[in-house]
Amino acid sequence: MKPIVKRLKFSEKTRYQIINIKTKTKIPTYATICRWGFCYSLSQDSIPSPVPLVFDSNLEITWETFIGNTGSLIPIALKQYCHNHNLLLDSDSIKRQFELHLARGIGYLAGMKLSGIEELMELALNPPTPTKPSSEIIKLQSKPKPAIKLVWQILEEPETNQSKGSKSSLSHKMFKL
User: What is the mean pLDDT of the segment spanning 138-154?
Assistant: First the structure.
């Protein structure tokens, strides 16, 4: 599969975040940290903000180093994400989404203030539940109620000894189906 980019480039801020994560987690390579960040960003429901990215650091990683032994899983996952979120699937849009997810994911990991690789493993095994507005949570948690059909049947009761002027009464019966 064709690489999304030939070389991954980073801003000075992102480079600093990667180094910080590497120091705290003891993950041996930058590429592994970048894969973690990228995948974490893809797992989010929201689309990354289309912020301008500045590639002003001297850190670069080749595509082959970044994907490691994942093969074509990373490009496929990104294309699926773009498809699911109704984003364009042309090569420029895919490249832009890749760069945005990479920067966002590394930023997320840096913001977690990880103290070890165990926390990354815990994150992978037990991802946090996405935050949704409370009204959406209620809608998702409440089960749809089965439809209830109401059947009205009007029966004339036989006339009994009623006082003059009174008409026969009608009774209504309701059945749940």
Answer: 47
